[in-house]
Specification:
Length: 271
């Protein structure tokens, strides 16, 4: 980056089990212009903090990784204050978990380049956590902003049908073609050994998938709930509701691969 450029992080005051210490909002500055990534939930003090951090610079774009309610709603307030256009991919109309209050002014395509002065930011489609998820590659810093595709300190939740485990694993591998030096997640701290972390995440999902297949062996037809208690025996019962959604995502992946069959909400391993 040039002497006038920088990446700056603000953390929204929305800590929870799902968001860790809160949602990370990132600015990319180049001289007197800026991009903003994931403005976060609509909390007046956070919007004020963003506008303070922007100062006299001109905001050239509000970039959204996806529209979960901890990522996008404040785009409305920031757009009203700055007139900056919103970039992203609108959520599926049937995806009621995502925020539909924000209008995307420019729908991004895979590999699309956004220029900010001397800098470029590349949109990288990374479906998996949601079908419309994007990461943003800042080549000058060899940094990728990963939203909820990769988080630090917690596991990404994949909820079907708009979350997809097969897509998620492909989207993890996809990031490895970039010469990554660091990952800037929407939750947690910067990650400085990106390829190791991606490999660890893939291995974690593969090992869980092995447990799913083992859990299905010799069971005959089994419900999601019963399989959850077998596959997630190592996870506290209070988290089994969440775990069953990830298990469902694993089963749909295995279904697509022809390795399991589903019949009236029961599942069976194919021979
Ligand atoms: Zn999310």
């Amino acid at each position: 980056m040039t002497a006038n450029s920088a990446v700056y992080r603000l953390r929204a005051p929305n800590p929870s089990v799902m968001t860790g210490e809160g949602t990370n909002t990132y600015f990319i500055f180049d001289g007197d212009i800026a991009f903003l990534i994931d403005p976060g939930p609509e909390i007046p003090e956070h919007s004020e903090a963003m506008l303070d951090a922007l100062g006299d610079r001109t905001l050239k774009g509000i970039l959204l990784t996806h529209m979960h309610p901890d990522h996008s709603p404040a785009a409305n307030a920031i757009k009203a204050a700055t007139n900056a256009p919103v970039y992203g991919i609108p959520p599926d109309p049937l995806d009621t978990i995502q925020d539909h209050s924000v209008t995307v002014d420019h729908t991004l395509g895979d590999g699309e380049i956004l220029s900010l002065g001397s800098l470029t930011v590349e949109a990288v489609t990374t479906p998996g956590h949601t079908s419309n998820h994007l990461c943003f590659w800042l080549s000058s810093e060899q940094m990728v902003f990963t939203g909820d595709h990769i988080m630090q300190g917690s596991t990404v939740v994949i909820v079907p049908p708009f979350g997809d485990m097969q897509d998620y694993l492909s989207s993890l591998e996809k990031l490895k073609k970039y010469p990554l030096k660091s990952i800037a997640p929407a939750h947690g701290e910067l990650i400085f050994s990106p390829v190791d972390e991606i490999n660890r995440l893939v291995a974690h999902r593969r090992s869980r998938e092995c447990k799913v297949v083992q859990g299905l062996e010799n069971q005959g037809w089994i419900s999601l709930e019963d399989l959850t208690t077998i596959v997630y025996a190592d996870v506290h019962e209070s988290l089994h509701g969440l775990a069953s959604r990830s298990l469902h995502a694993h089963l749909i992946k295995l279904l697509k691969e022809g390795r399991v069959t589903e019949k009236a909400t029961l599942w069976q391993l194919n021979d």
